[in-house]
Amino acid sequence: MSAPPRVSVVITAHNAAGTIAACLRSVAAQQGVAPGELEIVLVDDRSEDGTDHAAQSVHLTNWRFLRVTEYTPGPLTARQIALDRGFRAARGEVIFVTDADAVVPPDWIARDAVAGPVEFRSAEHLRGPLQTVDSLYYLSVARILNALGFAAGLLFAHCAFRREVYARIGGFEGTGFALTEDLAFARALRRHGFRLVFQSHPLVSVGAAPNWGDLVRRAQRTSAGGVSALSVALGAWILPLPLLAVGSLVAGPLALQLFLLRYALGAAVTALAVLAARRISFLPYALIYEPVAVLIGLRVLGLVLRRRQVEWGGVQYGR
Question: What are the chain's domains?
Answer without folding.
Answer: 6-116+154-207 (3.90.550.10)
